[in-house]
Amino acid sequence: MGVYSVIPCKGCAPWQGLLLTAFLLTCWDLTTTAQVTIELVPPQVVEGENVLLRIHNLPENLQAFVWHKGVRNMNLKIALYSLAKDRTVMGPLHSGRERLYSNGSLQIHNVTQKDTGFYTFRTINGHVGVVSITTIYLHVYTSLLNCGNSPTSAKPVIEPVPHRITEGSSVLLLVHNLPQNLLAFFWYRGMTVSKKLEIAQHIIATNSTVLGPSHSGREMVYNNGSLLLQNATWKDTGLYTLRTISAELKAETLHVQVEVDASPLTYGCPSTSSKPRIESVPPSITEGASVLLVAHNLPEDLRVLFWYKGVIVSNKFEIARHIIPRNLSLPGPAHSGREMFYSNGSLLLQNVTWKDAGFYTLRTLNVDLKIGLMYVQLLVDTSLSTSRNTLMIEPVPRNAAEGESVLFLVHNLAEDVRTFSWYKGAYAVRFFKMVEYSGATDSVIQGPAHNKRAMVYTNGSLLIKDVTEDDAGLYTLETLTRGLKVEATQVQLQVNTCRLPPTIAKLTIESVPANIVEGENVLLLVHNIPENVRAFSWYKGVSIIDRHEIVWYLVATSRSLLGPAYSGRETVYPNGSLLLQNVTQKDAGFYTLRTSNIHLKTQESRRLIHIYKPVTEPSTKVTDTTVTVQSAVVFTCLSADNGNSIRWIFNNQSLQLTERMKLSPTKCRLRIDPVRREDAGEYQCEVSNPISSKTSLPVNLTVLNE
After folding, report:
1. Which of 22, 129, 197, 678 could make an SS bond with 29 (beta carbons 3.0 to 4.6 A apart)?
2. Of 150, 137, 144, nearest to 179 (Cα)?
3. pLDDT digits (tens, 9 = 90+) for 233-242
C-alpha cells in the first residue's frame, strides 16, 4: 500500500484534516494486533479528585495520537499530540483541566459529574493511518458519604492552635471548611466589623493581602483563611473576627477567642522578646499534619537565610536557602518537596512523617558576614505507631526556672543498646562527654564535661538538679547497639532566670465536661467572679444585645429575669455559673457572661462550646482485594459523619506510612503505589471525635507475584 497523504479539508484546521484522513482509513487499515489498553488511576474517582487515564502498550513509530469525548464523534475533541513536532493542539472540549502526556496518558484535574462518559484514544502513523482505537468509560461518583470532600453543609470554624498561650508565644487561628467560592476575606480585632479594627484583607483572585489599620506588624495572613499572631502580649487577649464574602456577595462572620496568659516579662524579668528565636506552631503534631517553624525577631541587616535538618550545619543537610536582596529561595539536598520557605525566615513543613521529627537549624548571614545559629525541636507524636518507635527525648519541664531540676526523659530506647553516652552540646565528641553508661557491666564512667548535679538512669534518661543559666543549650544522647549501630539524638534545655509571677485572678469560664455529647448537660462554671458584683447577665453569642440575652441575675435579691434567648433548659446559679440541659447542635457556639459591680464597672468573659454526636461505624472499600506486585491499590474510608479524625489500621496495628503510601487531605483515602508483598493483610479505618470512635470491618488484601 502506498504512502497516504492528508485529505484536504476546506475551512478546517490542519489537525482536523489529519483526523479526517485517519477516520476514513479506519475501515480498512485498523490493525487487529494492536493491544492498546487504558487504565483508570484511581479506578474509582469522586468529584473534586484527579484521575489519570493511563495508556499501556503504546505502538511505536506513531505520527500522532488524539483524545476525544465519546466513541465516534470527532467534533468532541479534547487534544491532539504530534510526536514529530512534540506539540499539543487543544480541541473544542479542552476545559483547561486536562493534561496530555507524551506517553499517551491523559490526566483530568478536579473532575465533576459532567466528566462522566466514554473517552476514546486514537493512535495514528503516516503509513497505516489509524493504528488503534481504544475506548473506556469514566464514572465520576458523587459521594453522599464524607470522604475528604467537605460537604456543602460543613460550616467554617476557627481553631486556635494552641488553645492557650503565654506572652511572647505565637498562636495560629486555623480556619477549617473555608468556602471555595470566596471573593475575599477580612480579619478584625474584636467582635465588630469596622474598618478601623481591620487587621488585613485578602483578595482571592489576585492572591494579595492588604494590611488594615489594626495590623501591628506581628500578624500574617494565609490564603486558606488562617491568621498567625506572633509574639503575643496580654493586650492581644480577646475576640477576633473573620468575615468572608462569597461570589454571590453573601457575607458571613465567625469569631474566635485568643487567651494570653501573663508571662514573667510583665513582672520585671529580663526581656528576651527581642532576641532571635524559632517557635514550632503547634508545639507538637501528629503524622500527616503541617507545622510552621516561625522565626522571631530576625535582624534587619541579613543577606542570606539557611535552614538545615538537624543541628549540624552541612551542605547535605541543607533544606533551603533564601537570598534576601534577590528575594530568591533555592532548595537544598535535604529538601523533600514538602517544605515552603517564607521571606520572613519561617519554614512550613507539610504532611509531616515520623522521619521529620528532631531538630532544625536556622543559620543567618548578615551584611558583615556574621553568622547566627538558632535551633528548634519538632515533636511528632508516634504513640499510635507500633511499626516504628523513634528515639525521643522529652525535657520535663519544657521551660525550667533557675534552681529547678530537669529530667531529659528518653522514650523508645532500643532494647539491644550496649552503651549510651550524654554530651553537652550538639556534637558527640570526647571533650563534651558528660557520662557513659555500659549495660553489660551496669557501670557509669564520668567524662571531661561531667556535671556533679547530673544523674543518669538505666533507661537512658538524664536528671540535672538545680539548673543554672549556664546549663541552657543543646544536649546529645548517643547510643550504641549490639549490632554496632550508632544513633544520636538531641534535646534543648531552656532555663528561665527569673521567678514566675503570681497568678492573677481573672474572670474565666470552664466547660464541664470539656467535650459535650448531644442530649447531655453542660455546666459553664465561672471562676473568679468579683466579690463586689452587683448583677450579671448571660448572652448567647459574642454580642451583648437584648435579643441575645438568656438571663439577668440580681445578686442582692437573688432575682432572675429571663431574656429573649431563654429556651427553658437553662439554670443560673448565684456564683455566676450557667447550666444547659439536654443540649442540641443549636446550642453550640459562644456564650458571654457580663458582670457589673457596685461601682457599675463591667467585666466580660466568653466561652465557646462544641456539641458532639457519637460517630457511626465506617466502612472500608478497596479497588481490588487481589492485586499483583508493582500495581496500585486504593482504600477508601466511608463515613456518614463529617469533620472526624481518621486513622488507618493494618493487621490490628496502626498503619505506619511509607513513601509508597499517600493519604488524601482528610486521610479518608489511602493509595499504595507500587504494592509490595509485605502490604498483604487486613486493612481497617477508624473514625473518631473527642467523645467516641468506631472501627470498620476488616478488608483483606492479597498480593500476588507478577
Report:
1. 129
2. 150
3. 878 888 899 9
